[in-house]
Write a structure and sequence with these properties.
five-stranded mixed barrel, alpha+beta, binds flavin-adenine dinucleotide, globular, 13 strands
């Protein structure tokens, strides 16, 4: 079985030192959230994830969810663990105190999301979509609906889902067929089939609140005719008690490569009673509140799985002896594999990406909070544009890197990694969904290039790169070599940006064939920017904790010398265009 120690020290390093963001610090309601309070929360979070949730990963993999007589049964131990999980208040961490939440900022809840993803992604998914649905309802529903549904969802007694996908529509939601027929009392009857619905049914909560996109009978075809509906598994009475069963049944559950403890359901809606959320025909806009936040959380899933894969392969590399190292003092017949340069390179590759991603995620969480809560509208808007720009990057890069890291981790285990005993192959399998769901990574890259770089508010990518350039004007000889490397790569990215802006106008296929590379380039720049912030603190505070800061500086050294230069090859290959791709005749 895998082991896991939550990286509380690294998280607290970020929380204590990278909070020097003026806009974030001006948010009144977070002023009293002290590092001591956050440390307490993270230490408690570490305990529940290490002790209670981690063992569920293997249990869920070996005993997948089953559908018996129309009822979905979760793996052994899930029910008991979920009861404790909600009793301890983990579903309410980032929710509004008005509905019983603890009101923690995303800078804290993102750390919890990472830990839970490391411990068991399958178990996490039962509460993850509930938080997403909570956010969507909180932003777009009427006060009556909020009062009726949110307290129980925050408490974790009811859970939520996101019902978009249908047999004919995955990426292209405009094709959806599910219908909504308005009733004389203002409710709707929803009919249609949704597939691949995470936590679509299960035995952990008393009720399930489905957020369903459907087309009203008088709405037009395509995405402009889509509305959003809240459709509960059980109707909720006016006094808040649970009433009769709604017309929703589980057709089947998917048998999958990974996250086998998570119920991925086919749901049939037959004249189910639904309540419209937000304006008619603007359903996708409302749903995007949920999807955008979810995309960041899926990126964090990739980070969490990368962390546990790294920890286990590091431990293994310290225990496994094979081959002689180049250390002339070694007297044994074989040395620990961690002595070999290639194994060390692989481990440092993982570590430098993971710690950089965590720092970037912390920055993104701050920006998200500023975009939601700052009192100045202009500052809110600017933060919101940066969040929109970096969200597809975090979703895609973290999950793609998750594939690289979990695969490398398996490689360090050699043949034992491929067999089931060590649990490392499960981490690889569990991560494989993350580049697919919540909008595939290719679609994220298209979204970045065609919609997020430049929007109605201006040239966001230029503003973002200018912000980085300004922030790395640091007068410190020790940081200079790192800054120079970043500046060189920002220049490459600027050329790539000019090239791709031209192609968006003049040759869309060239841009389409380059957007995955472009996303990776932006992601590596964003991570390098975060590393510079980490280095600034590390050099300044070096004498306070030499061992910790030395490790940071050496890890950054690897990132700037071995990972960041990938940018050059992404640009070189992408800028060869698409003619030879589009002209090719597949037989
Ligand atoms: C385990 C699991 C859980 C899921 N959970 C949920 C859930 O809770 N709720 C929900 O609604 N859905 C859920 N999904 C569905 C998931 O979000 C979709 O599978 C995903 O969005 C892709 O849709 P698709 O499978 O129909 O692929 P398609 O849309 O058919 O795409 C196939 C391929 O074509 C590419 N492609 C599509 N359009 C374009 C384009 N314009 N340009 C370039 N390439 C393109 C895609 O990147 C992909 O590689 C889940 C899926 C799984 C497997």
């Amino acid at each position: 079985m895998t082991t896991y120690i939550a990286p509380v020290e690294d998280m607290m390093f970020l929380y204590e030192n990278l909070r020097n963001n003026n806009d974030y610090n001006e948010i009144e309601k977070y002023k009293e959230i002290t590092p001591d309070l956050v440390k307490n929360i993270l230490e408690e979070a570490a305990k529940i994830n290490q002790n209670l949730i981690l063992p569920l990963a293997k249990t869920g993999d070996e005993n997948p969810t089953v559908l018996e007589n129309g009822v979905v049964i979760t793996p052994p131990g899930y029910k008991e663990a979920y009861k404790k999980f909600i009793e301890d208040g983990w579903t309410s961490l980032s929710c509004d105190p008005k509905y019983g939440g603890q009101g923690m900022p995303k800078t804290v809840s993102a750390f919890f999301d990472e830990m839970l993803s490391s411990a068991s992604l399958s178990f996490k998914l039962y509460s993850e979509l509930s938080i997403g649905a909570y956010n969507c309802i909180n932003h777009h529903a009427t006060e009556d609906i909020k009062k009726k549904f949110l307290p129980k969802m925050v408490e974790g007694k009811w859970s939520g889902t996101m019902c978009l996908t249908e047999p004919v529509c995955g990426t292209d939601l405009g094709l959806l067929k599910t219908k909504a027929l308005e009733q004389s009392d203002g409710t709707f009857k929803i009919s249609g089939q949704k597939i691949f619905i995470t936590s679509g049914d299960h035995d952990l909560t008393e009720n399930i609140v489905h957020l369903v996109i459907a087309r009203a009978s008088d709405s037009s075809a395509g995405t402009k005719g889509i509305s959003l509906f809240l459709v509960p598994k059980f109707i909720v009475n006016d006094d808040g008690s649970i009433g009769s069963r709604n017309g929703i049944s589980t057709g089947s559950i998917e048998s999958k490569m990974g996250i086998k403890g998570s119920a991925t359901c086919v749901l049939n809606f037959e004249d189910s009673i639904g309540y419209m959320i937000g304006p008619k025909n603007k359903g996708l806009n409302s749903m995007f509140t949920m999807m955008n936040l979810e995309r960041i959380v899926v990126g964090i899933q990739g980070l969490g799985l990368s962390e546990i894969a790294y920890q286990n392969s590091l431990n293994y590399a310290k225990e496994r002896k094979q081959g002689k190292s180049n250390n002339k003092n070694s007297k044994s017949a074989a040395d620990f594999i961690i002595e070999h340069a290639d194994i060390r390179r692989t481990l440092l590759n993982m570590k430098s990406i993971i710690e950089g991603e965590r720092a970037l995620c912390f920055w993104l969480s701050q920006q998200t909070e500023v975009s939601l809560n700052h009192k100045d509208e202009k500052i809110r808007q600017k933060a919101s544009d940066f969040v929109s720009l970096i969200t597809p990057v975090v979703k895609s890069l973290f999950t793609d890197m998750g594939m690289e890291i979990t695969s490398d981790a398996m490689q360090i285990f050699g043949g034992y990694g491929y067999t089931k005993d060590q649990g490392i192959e499960q981490i690889y399998r569990d991560n494989r969904i993350t580049p697919i769901y919540e909008g595939t990574n290719s679609v994220q890259a298209i979204d970045l290039v065609f919609r997020k770089m430049v929007n109605n508010n201006g040239d966001i990518i230029d503003e973002y790169l200018n912000m980085i350039k300004k922030e790395i004007e640091i007068n410190d000889e020790k940081i200079k070599p790192f800054v120079q490397k970043l500046e060189k790569n920002i220049n490459i990215m600027s050329n790539f940006t000019d090239w791709i802006k031209d192609k968006i106008k003049n040759s869309k296929d060239d841009a389409g064939a380059a957007c995955n590379d472009y996303l990776k380039v932006l992601g590596l720049i964003a991570i390098a920017h975060s590393w510079i912030k980490v280095l600034e603190v590390s050099f300044k505070k070096y004498d306070n904790n030499k061992e910790f800061y030395d490790e940071k500086i050496q890890t950054a050294n690897f990132f700037f010398n071995r990972v960041l230069p990938r940018i050059e090859s992404y640009y070189l290959t992408a800028s060869t265009g698409s003619k030879y791709i589009m002209d090719f005749k597949f037989k």
